[in-house]
Amino acid sequence: MVYSAEIMYRALFILVLQGWFLFAACEGPPAADGNPDVLDQKLLERVKVALVCGLAAGDHAQQFLDACAAEGRAMGFTVDTFTAGEDTLRRREFMARLAQADYAGLIFAYGGADTPVLLKPVVERGIKTVTFDALPLENGASPREGFQGLTNTMQDDAALARISLESLLASFDPSRRPVRVIRASGGPGIPFLDRRMAVYQTYIQRGVIAEAAVIRPRNSAFSRGAVRDALAAVLNRVPPGSADAVWASGGEFAKGCADALEHEGREDLKLFSIDISNNIIKMMLKHPGQWASTAAADPRGAGIAAMRLMAAKFAGEPVPDSYTFDARLVNAADLNNAITMGNIAAVVPGWGQEPGLFDQYPWMRALKAAAGKYSRRPPVADRPRQ
Question: Which end of the chain is more exposed for a tag (fewer CB within 10 A), N or C?
Fold first, then answer.
């Protein structure tokens, strides 16, 4: 949609009247000549957005959180980041308190099975809400009853699992016998990991994959150390020749697996994974020929899109009930020491370039320009806190 200048500035004016955005009445009038460069700094009043990580964040998740916070601050919002914690009762108490605070919006990322219960008091209070990899699917869709107005975004977990597992199968010959896989995964009860596991089970049912062992960390959904220790113990019971590959359904699992394989000297096993970060790129390059590939969606793009959706909600723009981010395969053979998350699109076609990042609103660019001009707060992303 293309806006005329008149419509764009009318939209900004409506936002001012609604009290959602930047320009609130100041204590005194601006300079007589009306020059915006001399407006009182108190003219800038911020919208507050809470960015909550429902689970402990690895560095793949941290890319989402950092990009999301930076995008909000670029539009002049105050963005406070939190980790909800692992204790169920404390999580509910925290979200109940959050619902009573002065936040205009909530972005809730990486939730567990209790996410709908956690979000209830926030949504019921009318706080604008966007989720990412947080809500479980019911009959293939996000729960809608009691969540009107919520926008659920997610990685295409089914595609992530399928792309990763197809890469695994392509490295062996499943027509001769099932590929024997050591699986490192989390859950049940973590929606995005459960969706990946559902796809994995179809490969078991087809008979092209046979499980040699299962690694599941007990203390956290994102525990590199726990997976490392668990896999090291399992490898003592799975001698060379009795397994072919390790499949890790998340980035921290994969890093723990790589650590264990290196420590135990198990070069006979190939590693396939989901998620990517600068640290994962370095580790893939450190283990050439062993960490073969990883499937991933762009976490930075997802974070930016989540905050743009929030801004669009504030502005009263029509936004979708749900949005899914595309999955890509990253082959270790395509990487080199010059590749980072900042330029990975050079070796992964389509990375970060999918349509639908919700930047088509001219008023959003005007908002960023205004925030950049009048804001004195540096747009530095916080690390999540409890």
Answer: N
Residues 260, 257: Cα–Cα separation, whole Å: 5
How many Å apart are CA 76 and CA 41, to the nearest integer? 13
User: Do 127 and 178 belong together in one domain?
Assistant: no
* CB proximity list for 299: less than 8 A, separation 6 or greater: 60, 61, 63, 64, 67, 275, 277
**Binning pLDDT at 50, 70 and 90, where does residue 41 land?**
very low
User: Do residues 181 and 44 share a domain?
Assistant: no
pLDDT of residue 98: 95
Domain span at residue 251 reads 171-270
Burial of 107-135, coded b for 16+ CB within 10 Å and e otherwise, reads bbbbbbebbbebbbbbbeeebbbbbbbbb
Q: Per the domain annotation, does 383 fall within a domain?
A: no
Residue at 165 is within a domain? no
Q: How many domains does the chain have?
A: 2
CA 252, chain centre distance (Å): 14
pTM of the model: 0.84
Residue type, 28: G
**Do 211 and 241 have their domain in common?**
yes
